[in-house]
Each structure stands twice: as C-alpha cells, then as structure tokens.
Amino acid sequence: MKLTDLNGSFQLNNGVEMPYFGLGVFKSADGNEVINAVKYALKANYRHIDTAAIYDNEKGVGQGIKESGIDRKNIFVTSKVWNSDQGYENTLKAFDESLKKLQTDYLDLYLVHWPVKGKFQDTWRALEFLYNEGKVRAIGVSNFIIEQLEELQTTAQIIPMVNQVEFHPYLQQKELFQYCKTNGIQYQAWSPLMQGRIFEIEIINKLATKYNKTEVQIVLRWNLQRGVITIPKSVKESRIIDNAKVFDFELSVEEIEMINGLDRMERIGPDPSNFNF
C-alpha cells in the first residue's frame, strides 16, 4: 500500500481504482451549499465524491460536478440505495432516479445503504444486474456486519467490492475489518471524526502537536495508513483544503498502534445488528 497524494487510490477486487480520499456530503444541504462544497473539493484536486439518495442532495452534487468543468470520467462518484427503495425492481428504479439527479449515465460505485432484513439479497441482485450491464463500475454495501455479509454471500454471484461502515478511534470493529481484508472487500469509513469528539482524545492532541497538524489530519492519516478509504464531510472551502493536507507526514508503527488501542467498540451511529429499518 502506497500513499502518494490526493489523487492516489486503492484497487478494488475487480481492478477498479478507487480514490482513497474523498468528500462526504452527508447533511450538506441541496442547492448552493452542496454545489459549492463539491466545487471547492474538485478545485482542491479531490476526485471522489460520496453521496446517497437519502441525503437528498444528489441534484446539487450533479450540478456541482457539472459547474466544476472537470470531465465526469475523472471523478469517482458514489451513491447508495435507501432502505425504503430496496428490493429488486425498486432498486433499479431508485438507481435510475439517482442517475437523473446526478446528471450522469453511470456511477463509479453503488452501495446498499443498510442491510434491510428480507430485502438486501434482492437488492444486491439488482446491483449485480447494474454492474453486469455496465451502468456502475463497482458495487458494494454499507453498514454490513460479518453475519450479514455471510448471509449475502449465500445467494450473491459477485462479492461486494466495498463495505462502508462507521470507523473511528473508538469504533474499529477489528473482526469485521479482518473479515473484509481476508475476503478482498475494501473498508471505507464514515464518521471518521466522531462528530468532533476526536478533539477530546489526549493521544490525538499530542500527535497533532508533535507533527504540527490538526487532530483531524492525524485521524485521517491514521485511516489511510490502516488502508481505509475516508470521506470527511465539510462545506467550508478552507476546511476541505485543510482536511486533505495529510500527505506530507507519516505516523510511525507505534503511533498507529497507540490509536488502535483507543478502540472502545463505541458507536456514534445506529447499530446494524438491531437498527430499526
């Protein structure tokens, strides 16, 4: 694994190169706020934008990409099918609606947002169809734990290429991380900054002082050195630029282990094993 710059990528199990650093747009309001955030990120040399149907800002993301002037094929775009749209036929319709809003004729990555019991296998079958039709370059899941990944694979023809999950110093899900690594499923983090709680962690504070970096930059660098794709969210241009300044230093093996040791199995978001879908 080599970390180079903002344009660097990790190779998925189907050979597609996925940029390991991107912009998340969860809770970014549709319209000018998300349009500008996308434009700020692309201007700063980001080439990976992560959205979802439930974020209700795909239209703005698509507009931001269009207004950026950057060729669509040079931008890695992810979206996700929401729980109420799951099932085979509904997923295909939801996918077409996402394409329309994003003003594109394909996605780079399409994810099953949550493992809705009794539906996610049919939803996955729809993603396999879209992949085989060439409408999406890679398919994956989000918020799947080991048991759900194993259940999925009893009927799946294609193994997921990505699993996007809650991942931060207090929740590392080490068994799931190892399972994905063993099975060639790329790990991706959401909520890497713990909704700001990383600023309360003394070890992170000390490392930020040592490297003359922010706590945010320390945690994002830790993500990347663990081999985890990360998509920090911001709508402020200065913060979007600062978030990406993680390629001019390297945490030591010992420092990585120090952060690894902070794991408390403590969630900020819902638990996929008992979430009310």
UniProtKB/TrEMBL annotation:
Active site (record annotation): 55
Q: Which GO terms describe its molecular function?
A: oxidoreductase activity, acting on the CH-OH group of donors, NAD or NADP as acceptor
Residue stretches spanning the membrane = none
Pfam families, A to Z: Aldo_ket_red
Sorted keywords for this record are:
NADP, Oxidoreductase
| Boundaries of every NADP-dependent oxidoreductase domain copy | 28-263
Question: Where is the site Lowers pKa of active site Tyr?
Answer: 80
Family recorded in the similarity comment: Belongs to the aldo/keto reductase family.
Q: What is this protein called?
A: Aldo/keto reductase family oxidoreductase
Report the source organism.
Formosa agariphila (strain DSM 15362 / KCTC 12365 / LMG 23005 / KMM 3901 / M-2Alg 35-1)
